Amino acid sequence: MNPQLPNTLQQQCFYNPNDHMFANHSALVKPDPGMDEYWAGLHAGAFCDDQLGYGYMNPNPVAQPVETDQALFLQGNSSSVSASVSPKKRKSQSLQVVSDKEKKTKGCSEGDSRITHDQNSNSKEASNNTSSKDKSKVSEVQKPDYIHVRARRGQATDSHSLAERVRREKISERMKYLQDLVPGCNKITGKAGMLDEIINYVQSLQKQVEFLSMKLATVNPELDFNIDNAFAKEIFQCSTSEFPALGCSSTNSAYFQLNSMDQGGVSYCGLDMGINAAEMGLRRSISAPISIPDQTFLDSSCYNQMQPSGVWDGDIQNLYRMEYEQETLIPFQSHQFTGSNEGINMKTET
Amino acid sequence: MYTSSMLKKEFLNKWIKGLQICCSSKNKMDLMERKKKIKLSADIAMASANKTATSWSNALISEAKKNKQDTILVSQLLGSKSPLKLQKSTNMIISIHKRVQCKKILKRSCFNAGKRMMKKKKKNLGISRSNFATTIAKRLVKKRTKVLKRLVPGGESMDEVSLIKEAMDYILSLKVQVDVMRSVVAAAEVLIDDKLLKLVE
């Protein structure tokens, strides 16, 4: 494939002295005319690095923004490539449009990590100007339609493999996000292992939902949920705390000696954190040694009036069998009904 | 986490509404029936608590709608909240699904035809170790993506990239769901124990 770059582009391709190999590996691809409608309809800003995967030629090479020095244009058999690319893109278009909106509105941790990643990628763009490392780069061009990808040194440059590589990078990028989501995935690097962990985690979460719904069904035979409205109001009043703390205060029974537990609260949390740390080390070998201090802890607590420990044992061991219970072990250990670490932090504060 | 607590509140609201709806209909229900109703209302509340329609939520809702018994409950829960959007997205998903399946059938037939050709051509049986390892790895990954597709609702008709994204969303919302449900269960238990105590006294 002979690169047929205009002079300006050639200069820009030669910007990075170490990338002199790139001149031979540059390629251009012509956009699929049918794709233009789709691309035109999409937000420029919404598409950061991980949305667009394929390279398209910018029809106006003179108007290239600064990023062209990092950009490489893909050349290939326009019709075949675009034809093969387009159905995939069209299929994922709809999902991407949907997911883009979600990307904007969801500011949760997933979004946070993405935003930081986007910021990182933006800073990457800036730093790439000065870096001498060969990196594949997916950058956002001012015209929303095109993504420019640089071929790595010594790698094949036909658009198929480039597209493949971009796709693979997208996948690995998302795997990294998933690593943050799924607890205990930091040490695993391979795709297969990661997928395994993810599958286990999803299965355990689904089982928990089933278990909890069954529990609710047993606990509440009348299914009378009008009382819960009171809870709901209390819950909404307090934004950060977990519900049961409020529920306890509302019932106002000697049964829940929360006030007295404040002194023990610190020790509670110490034990929780200790158990948590231990549990993190013993992910798959959760067994009796951890449950024993748990039971003694239970005995020493004021919650003797609660359900017979037999039920709890069954629950606890059932849950112990599930993996990734950093959150679940805490409430069942401490009977504080905290669903997450936030609750523990709350306790330490009060 | 700001938005997760918002999500929790929304989910809780919708779930309680759903529970009230389904318990108002019948008085005597089996344990399993109750559990199913609870779970169903929780799932739908979760799916609709998302402000943006992700494909797994749409898939969940459309699956629930297919079940004739639950359609009334579902429609009541969702109310008039953009049923059109859901229909559109479900239609889209269905069409995409069909497209993907047709492609898969084609691929399989071509692959099988190509296999025979390859067997004839392949004279070199010396497979290098790295190739062997990579093929095994690829097979493992494929198996696992299949499993994941089955787990995530609506995941059958997605390619890998978007599958992972949907899985992320799904995991997040599952976490929220579990947290809320756990607290509600605990609160309910407290109430009941309270009642029992009062009875005893």
Provide key terms for this protein.
heterodimer, A: 350 residues, mainly alpha, two-stranded antiparallel ribbon, 1% strand, elongated, disordered N terminus, disordered C terminus, B: 201 residues, 7 helices, 84% helix
Outline the structure in words.
The complex is a heterodimer of chains A (350) and B (201). Chain A is mostly helical and 350 residues long. Chain A is built from 14 helices and two strands; from the N terminus they run αααααββααααααααα. Chain A has helices spanning 7-13, 22-25, 35-41, 78-105, 109-128, 159-181, 191-219, 228-237, 243-251, 258-281, 288-300, 309-321, 326-334, 341-349, and strands spanning 139-140, 147-148. Chain A has a two-stranded antiparallel sheet with strand order 1-2. In chain A, a hairpin with a 6-residue loop joins strand 1 and strand 2 (147-148). In chain A, helix 10 packs antiparallel against helix 13. The longest helix of chain A has 29 residues, at 191-219. Chain A is elongated, with a radius of gyration of 28 Å. Chain B is 84% helix and 0% strand. Chain B has seven helices and no strands. In chain B, helix 1 packs antiparallel against helix 2 and helix 3 packs across helix 5 (83-121). Chain B starts with a helix and ends with a helix. At the A-B interface, helix 4, helix 5, helix 6, helix 7 and helix 8 of A face helix 1, helix 2, helix 5, helix 6 and helix 7 of B.
Which strand order do you get reading across the main beta sheet of chain A? 1-2
Number of beta strands of chain B = 0
How much is the average pLDDT of chain B?
A: 74
Q: Main sheet of chain A?
A: 2 strands, antiparallel
Largest sheet of chain B: none
Taking pLDDT < 50 over at least 5 consecutive residues as the criterion, the unreliable ranges of chain B are none
Helix and strand run of chain B: HHHHHHH
The helical percent of chain A reads 55-70%
Beta percentage of chain A is: under 5%
What is the averaged pLDDT score of chain A?
A: 51
Bin the helical content of chain B. over 70%
Please name the two chains that share the biggest interface, counting residues whose Cβ lies under 8 Å from a Cβ on the partner chain.
Answer: A-B, 83 and 77 residues
Helix-strand sequence of chain A: HHHHHEEHHHHHHHHH
Number of helices of chain A: 14
Q: What is the count of β-strands of chain A?
A: 2
> How far from one another are the termini of chain B?
42 Å
Query: Roughly how many Å is the radius of gyration of chain A?
Result: 28 Å
**How many separate helices of chain B?**
7
Shape of chain A: elongated
Low-pLDDT sequence parts of chain A: 1-142, 236-350
